[in-house]
TrEMBL record:
The keyword Metal-binding does not apply. Its cofactor is pyridoxal 5'-phosphate. PROSITE patterns: PHOSPHORYLASE (PS00102). Keywords: Allosteric enzyme, Carbohydrate metabolism, Glycosyltransferase, Pyridoxal phosphate, Transferase. It comes from Wickerhamiella sorbophila. This is Alpha-1,4 glucan phosphorylase. It comes from the Eukaryota. One of its GO terms (molecular function) is pyridoxal phosphate binding.
């Protein structure tokens, strides 16, 4: 295939070759010397030659007349804004409220993004670099508008343009709902990585699901979490590009038949199943200070046959649309409750729907290049973000063997060299397993392929370690339990050429506790560590513009946003009184902004001069929000025993706790109820409310997180040692000038090493001693710490409402082994909190700790992490200027 044919054949948007060739000429519309009309990292002479040969000059000139240019000045934005108000929205400027102004603004900015997106896709096709495909069931992106404006460098331009029309940009941005396409750290990590891949100019696509209702909207009613639909698409999503022309059929159930091809070889055919169509929605992801704009493709489930007209005419109205309802259920909600059979089936269906559509798309794109299948793993690197996309391994094998006719060994080699697997947990209960009957019923051909993979793998293990049935049992992809189950994490390990953990301790536990048998089989080299990182564009520039501006002034520019190690230059100014004063003022401004948000969403007035102590993350027993609230109750009881004079000398503290519980997670919901009850009691007690306040932050999301991290003095990362893979919220809080109280767990360890343990408050048992404590508790029972016993007695006596509500939570500690070591770590936790009070009382010392911590956070950039993935797993490089 010629270069020209290759360019025209793959724009990944479903356009015809003729239109694709013409659109290639729009590269020339970005050749102005001004920043946003420059070429994508420079168009090389070879590329220009290709363009000239494909698109005659007269067509390129005609194209320029209609080309949408990237916004570079206020008039560019305003022209697009008015056009969208009047034509897209069908309004006039005299009938344009904040919501309409947001949609017009977003669409005007998206016009520019699409220009850059098109150029990026065309350039990537021209260069033919290896493309990274990042498969994640969660992409917790947050709001798109502010991020796009900052990355494109046009926030002031758009702000000024809106101001001329009588709008304030903050009001407009607040009209955008958070896309609830993730539950927590997993989805936020994926969002950081896709930002970094664009910024660093890697050729990359993300693949996920377009959940109609997101995770859920959390309401707190009478202290309880109540889940409500999150109608984030109520007014449409102006940032997405619907691809109605891209529909991929995905099959479930059915049966497998054997047939013979023209060469007389037996082939398997999967037929007779239920068909659901996957429709693509694309979200352009702009890089920072580059026109490189990658793509996030989200799939929406649609019925293959929308409407049964015959049933409707017969009066069977409900069944006439039954197929439509059944299909759309797949992408209705993130993580459907799987506490029952139908829920398990829907979650498995969700995962296969997503990976099948994604693999079909990836393979289609590769086949357009007309390269040999032996080059597939040189063309594509597919990263499995946790076990959710592991079915992609079996699906690629099915495509290569059943549909493309490759022999098994070649198909396996391609698959193995294509996939990488990122593990995010060492807890066995969190590793996905599917009942064999559910799996086989829904995916009969994949079960056959699984058996074949398992047979080949166990045969090699037997050859390597003969007469070792115990090892065979441990590493088999099928767990011989009752019922039998498919081990998805094991499949991910066996089917990937690299397995990585996400923090040093976690990666060590992956090797020694989670997969030691596989390490024995494959060797150490397959299992590596890549510590997580966060994007400083979202989590410093956007979350904390005041601090970002101050840092830029004292480091000589904004280069720290793409090279976070430049933060170390702040240490030169650590004794500068003016710098220190401004540092403190930025924090105080952020605390006022957070207090305003708390009034709006929680109805509480908080003391902005108090220590802000924040724990916000998914509610789970291993993250130990219960330890935090027990510590708060202990503090409350001690304050009640003091005289007014003694209380007046205490350090005022505002404790903010937020997060969502999984809908079916009973114990997590009990923890939320206890936090809200404690908050009410403390709030209504005038003796202590001046020195202690407790607030549950409802409906925690990315937008609220940005306010919280900017205002924090102290953040809590207090998981039981050895249970938190890494954490990334710890990085966000420290990058914004807060200190950590935490266990020696996850990335806390590496943060401590970088910023200095004297600037953190570590406590609790180490990972290596956890099992010993659990064993002691099982054998001898739990002897409650006296202070914790008093806390429990207070709860049992009804101070916080009906004690029967909290009995399961308390009994899990005092009678059921205290699996998460709440009692074992309680005294150390309380002592660490006392050390926090003492340190915060020395405000100048605290400022020194804060500046020192931020200055040493350079390692924790997602840019660094993505570069490590590219070098260690994906074997690819960023796009360069050479063709």
């Amino acid at each position: 295939m010629s270069d020209c044919e290759s360019v025209a054949s793959d724009l990944s948007v479903g356009a015809s070759s003729a239109h694709s060739a013409e659109s290639l000429a729009s590269i020339n519309s970005l050749t102005s010397p001004r920043r946003h009309r420059r070429t994508l990292s420079g168009i090389t002479p070879r590329e220009l030659k290709v363009i000239d040969s494909v698109v005659p000059l007269k067509y390129r000139q005609e194209w320029k007349k209609f080309s949408v240019h990237v916004i570079q000045d206020k008039s560019d934005f305003q022209l697009g804004f008015v056009r969208h108000v009047e034509t897209t929205l069908g309004r006039s400027l005299f009938n344009c409220d904040d919501l309409a102004a947001y949609h017009a603004s977003a669409r005007s900015v998206k016009d520019s993004l699409i220009v850059m997106w098109n150029q990026t896709q065309q350039r990537q096709t021209l260069l033919g670099n290896k493309r990274i495909y990042y498969l994640s069931l969660e992409f917790l992106m947050g709001r798109a508008m502010d991020n796009a404006l900052l990355n494109m460098g046009i926030k002031k331009t758009v702000s000024d343009g809106l101001h001329d029309f009588g709008f304030h940009i903050e009001d407009i941005e607040n009209q955008e709902p958070d896309a609830g396409l993730g539950n927590g750290g997993l989805g936020r990590l994926a969002a950081c990585y896709i930002d970094s891949m664009s910024t660093l100019e890697y050729s990359a696509w993300g693949y996920g699901l377009r959940y109609e209702y997101g995770i859920f909207r959390q309401k707190i009613i009478d202290g309880y979490q109540v889940e409500q639909p999150d109608y984030w698409l109520e007014y449409s999503n102006p940032w997405e590009i619907p691809r109605h022309e891209i529909g991929i059929d995905v099959m479930f159930y059915g049966r497998v038949e054997e047939a013979f091809n023209s060469q007389g070889h037996a082939v398997k055919k999967w037929i007779g199943g239920e068909i659901v169509r996957a429709m693509a929605y694309d979200l352009p992801i702009p890089g920072y200070r580059t026109t490189n704009t990658n793509n996030l493709r989200l799939w929406s489930a649609q019925p293959n046959d929308i409407f049964d007209f015959a049933k409707f005419n017969e009066g069977d109205y409900q069944n006439a649309v039954a197929e439509q309802v059944e299909a759309q259920t797949i992408t209705s909600v993130l993580y459907p409750n799987d506490n029952f059979h139908k829920g398990k089936e829907l979650r498995l269906k969700q995962q296969y729907f997503w990976v099948s559509a994604s693999l079909s798309d990836i393979v289609r794109r590769f086949k357009k290049s007309r390269r040999d299948w032996s080059e597939f793993s040189d063309s594509a690197a597919i990263q499995l973000n946790d076990t959710h996309p592991t079915l992609a391994i079996l699906e690629l094998l099915r495509v290569l063997v059943d549909l493309e006719g490759l022999e098994w060994k070649k198909a396996w080699d391609i698959t193995y060299n294509t996939f990488g697997y990122t593990n995010h947990t060492v807890m066995q209960e969190a590793l996905e397993k599917w009942p064999l009957d559910v799996f086989g019923n829904m995916l009969p051909r994949h079960l056959e392929i699984l058996y074949e993979v398992n047979y080949d793998f166990l045969k090699k293990v037997e050859e390597q370690f003969p007469n070792n049935p115990e090892l065979i049992s441990k590493v088999s992809l099928i767990e011989e339990s009752n019922p039998k189950q498919v081990r998805m994490a094991s499949l991910a390990v066996v089917g990937s050429h690299k397995v990585n953990g996400v923090a040093e301790l976690h990666s060590e536990l992956v090797r020694t506790q989670l997969f030691p048998e596989y390490v024995k089989i494959y060797g150490e080299d397959k299992f590596i560590n890549i510590t997580n990182g966060i994007t400083p564009r979202r989590w410093l520039l956007e979350a904390n513009p005041g601090l970002a501006e101050l840092i830029a002034e004292y480091t000589g520019g904004t280069e720290f946003l793409t090279d976070l190690t430049r933060l170390r230059q702040l240490l030169k100014h650590i004794d500068d009184p003016e710098f220190r004063s401004r540092w403190s003022r930025v924090k105080q401004t952020n605390k006022h902004a957070l207090a305003s948000m708390i009034r709006k969403y929680a109805g509480r007035h908080i003391n902005v001069h108090a220590l802000f102590d924040i724990q916000v993350k998914r509610i789970h027993e291993y993250k130990r929000q219960q330890l935090n609230v027990f510590g708060v109750i202990d503090r409350y009881l001690k304050l009640k025993k003091m005289t007014p004079e003694q209380r007046a000398k205490e350090q005022p503290r505002v404790v903010l706790i937020g997060g969502k519980s999984a809908p079916g997670y009973f114990m997590a919901k009990v923890i939320i109820k206890l936090v809200t009850a404690v908050a009410d009691v403390v709030e209504s007690d005038p003796e202590v409310s001046d020195v202690l306040q407790v607030v549950f932050v409802p409906d925690y999301n990315v937008s609220k997180a940005q306010r919280l991290v900017a205002a924090n003095d102290l953040s809590e990362h207090i998981s039981t040692a050895g249970t938190e893979a890494s954490g990334t919220s710890n990085m966000k809080f420290v990058l914004n000038g807060g200190l950590i109280i935490g266990t020696v767990d996850g990335a806390n360890i590496e943060i401590g090493r970088e910023v200095g343990t004297e600037n953190m408050f570590f406590f609790g048992h180490l990972a290596e001693s956890v099992e010993g404590v659990r064993k002691e508790n099982r054998e001898n029972g739990v002897s409650l710490d006296p202070n914790l016993a008093e806390v429990f007695a207070t709860i049992d006596n009804g101070l916080f409402g009906d004690p029967n509500i909290y009995k399961p939570l308390l009994d899990s500690i005092r009678y059921q082994g205290d699996y998460y070591l709440v009692n074992a770590d309680f005294r150390a936790f309380v002592e660490a909190q006392a050390a926090v009070d003492a340190a915060f009382a020395d405000r100048e010392g605290w400022v020194t700790k804060s500046i020192t911590s931020v200055a040493n956070m350079g390692f924790f950039s997602s840019d660094r992490a993505v570069n490590e993935y590219a070098e260690s797993i994906w074997n690819t490089e960023p796009l360069g200027n050479d063709c």
